[in-house]
């Protein structure tokens, strides 16, 4: 962080952007390297992200993968995802896979392309849906002693997915609105969620494989999982994780 600008200027800038007051770390866009094209390896490395996002879309199928192993249905769906995302990537219709960055100025009121809206909406579903259902399943297991994760994914996943997708369709989720004007702030919510959910669920998967399915075991998993979500969320809020610091508007940068 550069120190030549007063902290009060930072806080006023964030306050004026209609977001809650923030006192953590920030970035200055004019200190970031400007690029006019994405390198080939940069584009290729972003493709697996969207493969994973869309592969997770059918929640019950993903649950069966972790519960029973890779199946023919999983393979067929993966092939479709590879084909679809591959075609989209060739035509530059995936975030980060474009030949050139779309966002250059965070405060610029540019229309948000449809492919960005679709991709980030499904990414929000992948992050929120699984995290919430796993949390709910652990709470139920602790209270009742009954493991209901299969039922949750069978009967709750798709209704919850529909709600999230509708929120995205109406532009009510970060990074999926009509404009990219607030990208410098909204991206921190997205990456903060991704960091918190990805790390917490990786830990939960390890616990699921190593701790017995008892009420006590479920309580241990719940405490650690919820604690990880809170801890990672706090770290993201304070800008301690990559891409979770607000970028002050009015400067040139690339996404």
How far apart are the first and last residues' alpha carbons, in Å? 19 Å
Number of helices: 9
Main β-sheet, in a few words? none
How large is the radius of gyration? 20 Å
Structural class: mainly alpha
Helix amount: 55-70%
Strand content: under 5%
Give the strand tally. Answer: 0
Which segments are poorly predicted (pLDDT under 50) over 5 or more consecutive residues?
Answer: 1-13, 15-20, 250-254
Order of helices and strands: HHHHHHHHH
What is the mean pLDDT?
87
What does the overall shape look like? Answer: globular
Description:
This protein is an all-alpha fold and 255 residues long. 62% of the residues lie in helices and 0% in strands. The protein has nine helices and no strands. Helix 2 runs antiparallel to helix 4 and helix 5 packs antiparallel against helix 9. The longest helix has 31 residues, at 114-144. It is globular, with a radius of gyration of 20 Å.
């Amino acid at each position: 962080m550069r120190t030549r600008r007063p902290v009060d200027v930072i806080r006023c800038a964030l306050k004026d952007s209609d977001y809650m007051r923030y006192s953590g770390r920030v970035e200055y866009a004019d200190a970031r390297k400007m690029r006019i094209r994405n390198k080939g390896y940069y584009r290729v490395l972003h493709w697996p992200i969207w493969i994973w996002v869309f592969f997770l879309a059918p929640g019950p199928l993903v649950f069966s993968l972790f519960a029973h192993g890779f199946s023919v249905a999983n393979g067929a769906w993966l092939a479709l995802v590879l084909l679809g995302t591959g075609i989209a990537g060739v035509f530059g219709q995936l975030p980060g896979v474009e030949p050139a960055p779309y966002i250059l100025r965070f405060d610029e009121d540019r229309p948000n392309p449809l492919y960005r809206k679709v991709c980030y909406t499904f990414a929000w579903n992948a992050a929120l849906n699984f995290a919430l259902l796993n949390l709910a399943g652990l709470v139920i297991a602790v209270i009742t002693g009954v493991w209901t994760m299969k039922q949750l994914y069978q009967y709750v996943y798709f209704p919850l997915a529909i709600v999230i997708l509708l929120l995205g369709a109406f532009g009510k989720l970060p990074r999926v609105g009509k404009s990219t004007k607030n990208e410098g702030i909204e991206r921190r919510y997205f990456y903060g969620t991704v960091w918190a959910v990805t790390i917490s669920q990786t830990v939960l998967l390890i616990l699921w494989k190593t701790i017995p399915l008892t009420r006590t075991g479920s309580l241990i998993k719940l405490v650690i999982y919820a604690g990880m979500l809170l801890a990672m969320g706090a770290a993201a809020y304070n800008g301690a994780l990559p891409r979770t610091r607000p970028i002050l508007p009015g400067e040139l940068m690339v996404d």
